[in-house]
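notes to self, project folder thing:

trying the whole complex as one job this time. last attempt i did each chain seperately and stitching them together was a nightmare. two parts in total, labels are on each line so i dont mix them up again. if this works i'll redo the older ones the same way
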Amino acid sequence: MANITKKVSWSSRADDSNATGEGTPLLNGSEQLGYSRQVSGGSISQIGRVSTVNMDEEITSEEDSLKGRPKEITHNEKLLSLKYESLDYDNSENQLFLEEERRMSYLGFRCLEISRWVVCGLIGFLTGLIACFIDIMVEQLTGLKYYVVKENIEKFTAGGGLSISLILWAVLNSAFVMVGAIIVAFFEPIAGGSGIPQIKCYLNGVKIPRVVRLKTLLVKVAGVICSVAGGLVVGKEGPMIHSGAVVAAGVSQGRSTSLKRDFKIFEYFRRDTEKRDFVSAGAAAGVSAAFGAPVGGVLFSLEEAASYWNQMLTWRIFFASMISTFTLNFFLSVYNKNPGELSNPGLINFGSFDRNVRSLCSFCGLLGALFNALNYWLTIFRIRYIHRPCLQVMEAMLVAAVTATVSFIMIYFSNACQPLDVVQGEDYPLQLYCDDGEYNSMATTFFNRPEKSVQNLFHNPPGSYHPLTLGVFTITYFFLACWTYGLAVSAGVFIPSLLIGAAWGRLIGIMLLGVTTTKVIWADPGKYALIGAAAQLGGIVRMTLSLTVILIEATGNVTYGLPLMLVLMTAKIVGDYFEEGLYDIHIKLQSVPFVHSEAPPTSHWLTAREVMSSPVTSFNRVERVGTIVDLLSNTSTNHNGFPVVVSNANGEEPAKLCGLILRSQLIVLLKHKVFVELARSKLTRRKLQLKDFRDAYPRFPPIQSIHVSQDERECMMDLTEFMNPTPYTVPQETSLPRVYKLFRALGLRHLVVVDDSNRVVGLVTRKDLARYHLGKHGLEELQLAQT
Amino acid sequence: MANITKKVSWSSRADDSNATGEGTPLLNGSEQLGYSRQVSGGSISQIGRVSTVNMDEEITSEEDSLKGRPKEITHNEKLLSLKYESLDYDNSENQLFLEEERRMSYLGFRCLEISRWVVCGLIGFLTGLIACFIDIMVEQLTGLKYYVVKENIEKFTAGGGLSISLILWAVLNSAFVMVGAIIVAFFEPIAGGSGIPQIKCYLNGVKIPRVVRLKTLLVKVAGVICSVAGGLVVGKEGPMIHSGAVVAAGVSQGRSTSLKRDFKIFEYFRRDTEKRDFVSAGAAAGVSAAFGAPVGGVLFSLEEAASYWNQMLTWRIFFASMISTFTLNFFLSVYNKNPGELSNPGLINFGSFDRNVRSLCSFCGLLGALFNALNYWLTIFRIRYIHRPCLQVMEAMLVAAVTATVSFIMIYFSNACQPLDVVQGEDYPLQLYCDDGEYNSMATTFFNRPEKSVQNLFHNPPGSYHPLTLGVFTITYFFLACWTYGLAVSAGVFIPSLLIGAAWGRLIGIMLLGVTTTKVIWADPGKYALIGAAAQLGGIVRMTLSLTVILIEATGNVTYGLPLMLVLMTAKIVGDYFEEGLYDIHIKLQSVPFVHSEAPPTSHWLTAREVMSSPVTSFNRVERVGTIVDLLSNTSTNHNGFPVVVSNANGEEPAKLCGLILRSQLIVLLKHKVFVELARSKLTRRKLQLKDFRDAYPRFPPIQSIHVSQDERECMMDLTEFMNPTPYTVPQETSLPRVYKLFRALGLRHLVVVDDSNRVVGLVTRKDLARYHLGKHGLEELQLAQT
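result (full assembly):
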């Protein structure tokens, strides 16, 4: 393999995973790399692998990328990475599959349907349990930490030795974060961040290596507990969504490849199509558990992910969401020694508001866009310079220490004393330098778990916070949150965004309260906090429908529906004007070939002929084993789907299309040596069944691990039974939007382009479509590279 | 035309509309009728139009169907009607279209996008206005009626001449209903019923004649006011959804064909694809106005209708919903002399609940299924015997009179006196035979507007209703509602269902209250009313996700989310076991070729070869005008889509596919006489543009209205520029589920089946797919007939 430069990936170690156990990733090229590309004018420009490895070099003119391990990684956002493969969301309806389907009775389909519901129930149950576990662990650890620090502060407040408290606090936080960062950076880099962009890509059809593994789940859960307990400006909601997705991918397969256990159940679900549906349900269950929002969960899955609306699927997703909320509520109620009290809506409960809000924020979207822009530059910086695991751990620890220090300094210098009786149910009121009977409100904001702080900002009565406190808090928290997102720790961005928004929302509320005279209507700054929180979060993640429902479900009151909707819609429109959503930015920075829901509007100029890759490597229906092995082993082409053709009797070329076969299928065929000429051994060998393909799924062995002797190379292989005989095709003249629509609506991986006699002329894959995007100067074409 | 029997349609007059102004419906056959059908074994069974006209006859063995106007219409539910055409939800990307798209700059697309938002805003605004108008009119009329009747009753209560009051009441009601029934039965039968099944079909791609016309809207609005004011057991929510859809279809076209006004705007939107998207938004806006549920509206559109989830579309639909709610609130607040008070959530506001519910109903779904079964038999009876407009009007009046009488008798014989002080804000408390300071609770239930009654059942304190009152009320209302749905009046089923459910829910609540000892928890029977209402409505219409959100938004409290979800899910599962949803039943009874979201599970046996219609009538790329005219005029075939082929030089047949052209396009071509040989006149004639097609849309003239002279018949017509050069195709071996998926995901109308050399062998249309459904004995095939 020609991986000379260090690859840029979700985290800098993800590529290493290819070599260790991912199966195909050893050959993780693209479907079409190495095909020569026929551009519109007819000129042929060759984009081969070897020539593109250092394509970045031309742009950054750095010379060190060839000298061993580079200090800086060159990165160009106008590239599309070739290292991401696609998932097969279109069933390969080959003879084996059809035979199985036809054998199955109506009763069989009913059983299958019921087991789908069972799996969804299980997904909801386990996701709820995990959410419950994370919540309890975080509560225990933070409680312990606060107790230690508070004791220490109170001990030293009089004596003036507060620097010792600061150091204690910073060290405690850094220790937690170090653990969290080490497991993420060294053991499972893909578990870093919120996981939502990765799940979005997965559901879009991009194979992100290791994203739904058991190990990822374990690291994610442990990591998020550490980073939240370590006082970082992060939330635990994004990781919970990722956890739900991993649970779904695991449970639905009825086995664990990591643990080498196969329960021999749910074998039917061992393919990408079914797995994707369950992963949608898992993500929804995660949202549902995190926010107590089952409907919001379903909408999240649909808005962020799914492309094809299917009623039955929607109902199952909904079911998983409900079960998840229910499980979480039940176990938390048991934990809180109040079993059966199920009114606890979710991990975030904003409490109920009781009156109407009529104001809109003016900042809608602006602050969100600023956040995204800053994070964008920070991420590019990280990709270039902070790509070694140890550097990543150190950065995380640095952030933890800085967070602690900044908080401490702000608490120390602020004189935001508030009378103690105003506060109800404050867990950690800290007196510090305040008079007796008072407490430091800045300390309260920093010391609480973020969820609790959001709730306080929403609900504490007017006068609980000093405006200056809120102002300083907003600015500090804004930059801290921006710095934190993208660290090599498991962390979500929901809660920090809500907190920042709630703080400035409440600040505006207080200021309006000072300006206006009609005090009765504008009385409660908590409502401004809610609106601000929605605006900030909406400006960052750019969800509308699902976020509205999530916030409604989390606040427990529909009265705020209309203002929330208006705010979120405004935030989206304003934000989109400046910058993309945070998740989209991160997806783009990883050069993921993401297929959006519609083709760029001005792309009618392009047709399949210009977009496709050609010429295409095809196989004959009965092909020589040696040819197949050679083609699969060719790392410079590395195709994943091959049209199968039949030649005419007179050998006219190119021959007519008669099917499509995948690399993974060929590998299974080679492994089981399904060769025509081996007549003797064929008698003893059972017919290859769908089960053999399912057993190998999803970690198909690389071609190098399959030994084919010289004799066997001369054998023939009959692909008829295994190929998909009815691949979708389009004529060459089809416009790009039309190709796009077909591709996206059906979740295709390979789309064969044929001429008017049904002869193969090209192949359209995900990367061919994702390349085109709307830039500042109209339609732009991204370059493909093996970054 | 061979329309000998009276056709069964949405209402018995719908077919007449074909002859008057619908354009194509004069030729409203099917896409494939008259093609001979090649069934699996290879045997050919001819289903021609003439031979199938009286196909019903064989089954019912009635003899009178040929003798003029039959007294009874034979009807068989195992038929699929050929009279419904499809809509073109797949753009015909011909050269004209592509040229226009390519001419358009990025700025042009931005403008288009903005105008889409503007249209959605307008749709929301107008829908809100209409909802407001209906609401105010109903309130005024019912107020007037109640006032008159109440005066009369109070006048006669002492004297005992209550029969006069009864007659007055019955006559008043019948008069209202008569007006409503006459305009529906005689002027616009399609405006009858709730309109939801029709909109569902429209969005599914079935062309229901006249369903989105201005006249339909007017009749619908007037009709629903009359029927609600006439005291029928109906709601005004379904009609409001239909109204929203009509508004959307009208506004988005920028002209009114009925009023002959063309504003020369939004011309780009004059095609089925764009129109459908706006109609989705209109339906959502209707739900939003009816229930104050913007999110519920979006989900309704998606759950009931759309097949392809598109983010941009979703956001626009959401926008329309919000505007609609906002408009309604604003104008109602002005009407209520409280301008600016926007907390009025919608036409139905169930008020806020304040505590948790933990009980599930045991009847979930059962009563709903019973309702549907009864209505099913009633509808069949109506189709057979009550198909003349005057009979329909008489039936409606009868129902109105019976409703009044039954209510009166129940009020008369009940002694459900309740103290007056319990009730807050009762609009029409009726003393009747009760003591002073008391009122008759049965009368209250019957006398209020249904929305108000539902609210009372939810919120009146324990003890407001006598259990016997509720029991009798439930039974009476159940049968009345069942009888009413399907009458020739504009009427919805939402509110009656909620009312029935609320009544029995409250009854159960009261009974449990009597049984149980822990009075504190079970204290409020209103919560049982809510659960009962959800169960009844869910059992009838079988929506889950959207109904949950609608009910949450209407109750204004998320706390009930989980119990509501559980109840709705149970109601759906239990109900589906016995009977389909009410809307699906009505769609099926009209023999509409509805394409569900998935193929029947056991249909892998079938391939495109068995499903398709063949042989197909094709045109050459340059075709003789006479041939085209003859084929279009042939009423026995009546195709709507024609593959265009090119023959080889040696004239080998069948030739290769090179495009697809629609009847409507050919008609425009013939009208503008775009003939190749007319060289002289061609010079003076401008090139045909997309505008000419848009101007003719959607009422293309019938072929009979176009005169083609004998000379012109010999001319040639070049179809190259106008045909869709890249129709979607499938090979013959493609399995039915795969064909289904492609067809449904892309909203196709014609899918060309080709052989391995790209030669046309068949055509798959909507009816070919809708024919297969899962019956009691496995896969069944419906017969096609010109019912």
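what i see at first glance: The domain at 366-589 of chain A is CATH 1.10.3080.10 (Clc chloride channel).
need to look closer tmrw
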